[in-house]
Design a protein that fits this description.
Length: 424
C-alpha cells in the first residue's frame, strides 16, 4: 500500500511529492496563456522568490535559488542568485511562508539534514547553520514559527531506521534545542510526526501523522499543549463512506479567526477539527475530492481570508482548486485552474502581503518549473501569470531544467519548498 509517506517519498525520490486533493466542482477551465492578469505595482509585490531545489544528477548539490518576482522589474522571472549547500539530500520543505526576520529553515529530508539560510541580503544568501538529529529525534520535516520567534519542528522518527515515532522539537531562531516531546501513542501505532500547526490563542498545537518512508498508514491527529509541548490527545479520524478518507493525515491550516482548524489528508479529504481546547477534541469530515491511488494526491494547501487553495494531482484532472470556507463545515468550490499540459501541483505558498501564489510540481511537464498564479481577492478565481517565465521562454514558468546556474555548472533540479520574500 502507498501511504502519505510513500507519496512523500515518491515526491522526494522521484519528484519530491506531498499528496493531497479535494472535491469536484463546477466550471473547469483552461488557464489563459496569452495575457496574464494585470501587473501589480512594484510597491505591492514581494521582490523575490526563494526556491529550495533538489539536484537530479549524482555529483550535483541541492541549492537555494533567488528569482526576481517583481512584476515591474525588467528581470522578472530571472534567476538572480543561487547557493549550493554541498549535499544532494532530497531538498523538500522550507517553512510554509517566509517568516519575519532574515532566516529561512529548509530540510533535505532524505539526508536528515536541515539548513538555515541567511537571506538578509537576498541576492547573496548564505548558510547560517545546519543540523541533523536533535538528541534522539531524527529526520526533521516541518517548521513553523512561534510568536516568540522560536521554531516548532516535527521530527519523523527517533533513532535510526523507521522503528520509533519521533515528535515535536522546539528550536530557537538559530536552530538550538529548547525542548521536545515524543509523539508515540498506542492509540495509533502507525503514526509518525509529519506536519505541525501552532494555535497560540488556544495554547495548542496540532500535528499530523503521515509516514514519509511509506511503511505505515496512520489515521490520526495529535493535540499538544503549546506552552510546554505536552502531548494531550491522539485522535483517530473517522472513516468516510469511501473507506480511505482518513488515511495519511497531511496538513492543518487555520482560518482567519486563528482558532478554527481544518485538516487535510493526502487521500483528498478535509476534516474540521472541533473542541481542540477541551479534553475531547474530535474531527468532522466536511469535504472529499475524487482519489484512487498514489501518486495521485492532494498537496500542500494555503489559505487567504475566506479562501482555501488546494493543489490537486489526479492525472488529467490535476488542478489548483479554490474554495470558499466561510462556512468551514461546508467548503464550496469556486474555481479550478487547469493547464493544457500534464502537471501535478504539489507545493504552494501565498505571497505574505499580496494575492499571488507560487506553485511547484510533483511530476509531469511542470516538474522542473516554478509557476505563479493570481488569486482574485473578490471572487476567489485563479489565473496563471503568463508573464512570469524564463527569459526568452515560450511557456510560462521559470525553468529549472538547465545546465548552468549562478553558482556554477550543474544539471537540472526539482524546485520544491518555495516562498515569496517579504516586502521589507
Amino acid at each position: 500500500m502507498v501511504t502519505a509517506a510513500r507519496k512523500c517519498l515518491h515526491v522526494l525520490t522521484l519528484a519530491f511529492l506531498l499528496p493531497f486533493a479535494l472535491s469536484c466542482a463546477p466550471g473547469d477551465r483552461e488557464a489563459p496563456d496569452a495575457n496574464g492578469p494585470p501587473k501589480e505595482t512594484a510597491s505591492a509585490a514581494s521582490p523575490y522568490l526563494f526556491v529550495w531545489a533538489g539536484a537530479v544528477n549524482d555529483g550535483d548539490s541541492d541549492f537555494l535559488a533567488v528569482i526576481d518576482a517583481d512584476p515591474e522589474s525588467a528581470r522578472y522571472g530571472e534567476i538572480l542568485s543561487s547557493l549550493s549547500v554541498g549535499l544532494k539530500g532530497g531538498a523538500h520543505h522550507t517553512e510554509h511562508v517566509m517568516p519575519a526576520g532574515d532566516t529561512l529553515f529548509a530540510n533535505a529530508f532524505q539526508a536528515g539534514t536541515t539548513f538555515l539560510f541567511d537571506i538578509s541580503d537576498p541576492l547573496d544568501p548564505k548558510v547560517a547553520g545546519s543540523f541533523e538529529a536533535m538528541g534522539e529525534y531524527t529526520y526533521p520535516h516541518t517548521f513553523e514559527r512561534l510568536p516568540n520567534g522560536d521554531v516548532l519542528a516535527t521530527f519523523q522518527t527517533m533513532g535510526e531506521g523507521n522503528e520509533v515515532a519521533g515528535g515535536l522539537v522546539e528550536l530557537d531562531p538559530s536552530g538550538g534545542f529548547v525542548r521536545s516531546s515524543a509523539a508515540a501513542d498506542p492509540v495509533d501505532p502507525e503514526l509518525r510526526a509529519y506536519s505541525v500547526t501552532p494555535i497560540p490563542k488556544l495554547d495548542r498545537a496540532v500535528s499530523t501523522t503521515s509516514d514519509m518512508w511509506e511503511e505505515h498508514i496512520s489515521t490520526s491527529f495529535q493535540a499538544w499543549r503549546l506552552s510546554d509541548l505536552a502531548l494531550l490527545h491522539t485522535v483517530r479520524l473517522p472513516e468516510g463512506p469511501l473507506g480511505y478518507e482518513h488515511e495519511d493525515p497531511a496538513e492543518v491550516r487555520l482560518l482567519p479567526d486563528s482558532v478554527t482548524a481544518i485538516l487535510t489528508t493526502f487521500t483528498c479529504a478535509m476534516y474540521l477539527l472541533h473542541d481542540l481546547e477541551t479534553d475531547e477534541p474530535w474531527a468532522e469530515l466536511v469535504h472529499v475530492l475524487p482519489w484512487d491511488a498514489y501518486p495521485n494526491h492532494c498537496g500542500v494547501p494555503a489559505t487567504r481570508g475566506r479562501y482555501w487553495v488546494q493543489p490537486y494531482a489526479r492525472g488529467d484532472s490535476s488542478a489548483l482548486i479554490s474554495m470558499d470556507i466561510s462556512d468551514p463545515s461546508n467548503p464550496v468550490e469556486l474555481d479550478r485552474l487547469t493547464l493544457d499540459e500534464s502537471w501535478a501541483p504539489h507545493w504552494i505558498s501565498m505571497e505574505p502581503e499580496g494575492d499571488r501564489i507560487v506553485v511547484t510540481s510533483a511530476e509531469g511537464s511542470t516538474l522542473y518549473r516554478v509557476l505563479i498564479v493570481h488569486l482574485d481577492p473578490e471572487t476567489g478565481s485563479l489565473a496563471l501569470d503568463s508573464t512570469f517565465r524564463s527569459p526568452g521562454a515560450e511557456r510560462p514558468g521559470v525553468s529549472f531544467d538547465r545546465t548552468e546556474w549562478p553558482h556554477g555548472e550543474a544539471g537540472p533540479a526539482r524546485p520544491h519548498g518555495t516562498v515569496f520574500s517579504r516586502r521589507h
